[in-house]
Amino acid sequence: STFWLKWGTFEVFKFDYVSRAWERKLELQPPSKFLYYFSQVHLPNNLGVFLLGGTDINSQFSRRTIYFSKYQRFINKPMMTSKRGFATGVFSLHDQSVYALGGQDEGGDLALCERFSITQNKWIPIAPMNQKKNGACSIM
Predict the structure, then answer these.
(1) How far is CA 72 from its chain centroid?
(2) Residue 68: enclosing H or E segment and its boundaries?
(3) CB 55 within 8 A of CB 61
(4) What Gene3D superfamilies is this protein classified in (predicted)?
(5) Strand partners, 66
(6) How far, in Å, CA of 96 to CA of 84, rounded?
(7) 111 and 133 in contact (C-beta within 8 Å)?
């Protein structure tokens, strides 16, 4: 499944591979508008996607975490320990965790890192990166 979660709106779109068009999914309603510059971390086996941080229209960065469970419903999760947008996000099968690496806040680029333990349902700070970075890409 391929979804587009439109920044600054409540709008969710799904790509239909047969018609080769984006279809708005009115039945899917997030708890609040999607922030700008949030990071997406897709889980394996169509388990869904985590939405990490982002900014509002006033460039206020957020610690917000939302889980789009099995691409069917939105669930608020505990907030990250650091507010950020433009973060690198990745899921690790090894420890069943979502990682938020770097990003940006009102002060600029970040080296801060943390992981969300799915089994413990909480964010845990981890060692920072050696260099501040935002907008990087990752895959495991």
Answers:
(1) 16
(2) strand 65-69
(3) yes
(4) Kelch-type beta propeller (2.120.10.80)
(5) 51, 76
(6) 22
(7) yes
The residues, any chain, with a CB within 8 Å of residue 113's CB and separated by 6 or more, are 99, 100, 101, 102, 125, 126, 127, 128, 129
Q: pLDDT at position 54, please?
A: 96
Domains and CATH numbers, the chain: 3-126 (2.120.10.80)
Average pLDDT per run of 10 along the chain, which is 140 residues long?
93 96 96 95 93 93 95 96 96 96 96 97 98 83
Q: How far apart are CA 43 and CA 48, in angstroms?
A: 6
Contact of 50 with 98, CB cutoff 8 Å: yes
Is 99 strand, coil or helix?
Answer: strand
Question: Strand, helix or coil at 92?
Answer: strand
User: Alpha helix (H) ranges present in the chain?
Assistant: none
Which amino acid is located at 47 in the chain? L
